[in-house]
Amino acid sequence: MDAITNRVANSALITIDLEDFYPSGNRVVLDIAPWLYEELILKEKDFRNFVSENSWEQYTNCFVALTCSADAIIPSWAYLFISSKLAPFAKVIVVGDLNLLETVLFAEIIDKIDLSLYKDKPVIIKGCSTKTIPQSAYTILVQKLQPHVKSIMYGEACSNVPLYKKIN
Predict the structure, then answer these.
(1) What is the pTM of this model?
(2) Residue 135: is it exposed, middle or buried by C-beta count within 10 angstroms (0-12/13-18/19+)?
(3) Distances (CA, A) of 158 to 60, 100, 133
(4) What is the overall mean pLDDT for the chain?
């Protein structure tokens, strides 16, 4: 009887799990709706006073998504003013929701990946994770890898979906 051989372990296949790159830190949604007059109108003087008097230290080392849940027109300078107060404390600040925040974080991380590790290799992008990885992160990763790798698959080594194969 032949011995069982683990072909996956013996292959040149490289697995990339975006969860391994997940940056630790608190994610915070900062909703400015309560800072508006009747949650509808931004009164500049009142808004500036509130922002200036707020305790921004509570956002130290946080990833912050600035948003407004109210159906109000917020001038661009308002988010910039808040960002100027958050900048000394927060790691990353975006205007948007948590999905956009995660997308920005992963775009920065993926941009720093050493592509020489994957040159002309078959790569599988692991699909299941316990942490929230935005779909856009996978798209960004495929775009980054494709010019350098032999092939890209998605899923697990035992059951994957082929996405790309370099034509020689």
Answers:
(1) 0.84
(2) exposed
(3) 42, 32, 22
(4) 91
